[in-house]
Amino acid sequence: MLLRNLLIFAAAAMASWYLIDTLLQRQEAATVQSATTPVPDTLQLEPIVPLETDQPYGLLADINVHSLEELQLIFDRIEQLLDRPRAGGEAPLISVVLHGPEVEFFSISNYDQYKSLVDQAARLSALGGVDISICQTQMRNHGLGAEDVPAFLRQVPYGPDEVKRLLGDNYVYM
Questions:
Q1: Is 97 inside any structural domain?
Q2: What is the model's pLDDT at position 114?
Q3: Hey, which of 73, 99, 117, 150 has its CA 20 to 30 A from 108?
Q4: For residues 114 and 120, is the Cβ–Cβ distance under 8 A?
C-alpha cells in the first residue's frame, strides 16, 4: 500500500513538474518576445485591465496523502511561479484540495508545530496564487470543526466532489 502510494505520488510529481515547466517556458517565451518588441518613441503604459491569458485551464492539486514535506514542496513551487499578486478577477495559479490526513496541519491548535506551512499557504492565498479548499468530512474525521481552521481555507463539504467540480470547470491535474 505504501509503495503504491509512493508510486502514485512520484507519477503525480513528475506530471506536475512537467506542467509547471511548460507554463514557465511559455512565460519566458512571452517575456523574451515582449522584450524584443521595439518600443515606439511614445511612452507605453501597462494596461489597467489585465490581458487575457492563452491558458484555457487552471491547475488542480488533489492533495489527500501528502506529507508535510511534500505539501511544503508544492507551496514552494507555487511561490516560484507567482511573479506578481493576482488581480481580483484573475483565477489563482492553482487550486489545492486538501482531503486527507493533512487537514491536521491546518488545525489552529497545531499552528505552533506547522506555522511555516500555514503562514506560507496564507500568504499564497492572499496574493491570489492559490485557492485552498479543505474537506469538512475529513475535518470531522480528525475532530475539527469549522472554527478550528484558518479563515483563508475555503471549506467544502466533500473533497472528492470539489475535485470533480474543478475538473468540470476546465481545471487539470498537475
A1: yes
A2: 95
A3: 73
A4: no
| Cβ 103 vs Cβ 142: under 8 Å | yes
Instruction: Provide the pLDDT confidence category of residue 78 given band limits of 50, 70 and 90.
Output: confident
For 91-136, the pLDDT digits (tens) are: 787 888 998 889 999 999 999 999 999 999 999 999 988 889 999 9
Q: Cell numbers 514535506 label which residue?
A: 69
Coil, strand or helix at 64: coil
Instruction: Report if residue 156 sits inside a domain.
Output: yes
The whole-angstrom separation of Cα 166 and Cα 88 is: 19
Alpha carbons within 13 angstroms on the beta-carbon side of residue 35 total 6
Note whether 89 and 74 are within 8 A (CB).
no
Please state whether beta strands 58-63 and 94-98 pair in parallel, antiparallel, or not at all (unpaired): parallel
Please tell me the distance from the alpha carbon of residue 59 to that of residue 73, in angstroms, as a whole number: 16
Q: What is the CATH number of the domain that holds 137?
A: 3.40.1260.10
